[in-house]
Input
Amino acid sequence: MLSYIQKLEESNPLRESIIRSAVQTLQLPLGSKGLDAGCGIGYQALLPADEVGLEDLTVHTFVKDVHAPLRENIQTALISLFFMLWGERQPEVSEEDWEEFQRLCQPDSPDCLLNLQDYYAFFTYSMFSGKVPK
Output
């Protein structure tokens, strides 16, 4: 896990300015609360928290796992998530890679990975809280 955190810290300069810009665009009032949903260990939650002036910041990360056999509503949720995030081919994705994604993620595909007997996934949710300076 340390190497993952280290990689987040090392790669942060690529993301920090755009995230700070996005947060400033939101014009969040001081003391706002936020939910960093599905974004790893909450590392990026520190930027908006800093922007709204929270002190004594605490980040809590929750992990939820799912595994085969999947209930129908969980399989539907995962398929929706796949296509919400990667619903259409991006220019940098080759046609071959996109076809592979479709083969593995389309629910009507005989090779859909959600039908594997050993399918396993986990999701993380992070919440941060802090104090507004006086």
Q: What stands out?
A: The chain has four helices and three strands. Residues 2-26 form the longest helix (25 residues). The radius of gyration is 18 Å.
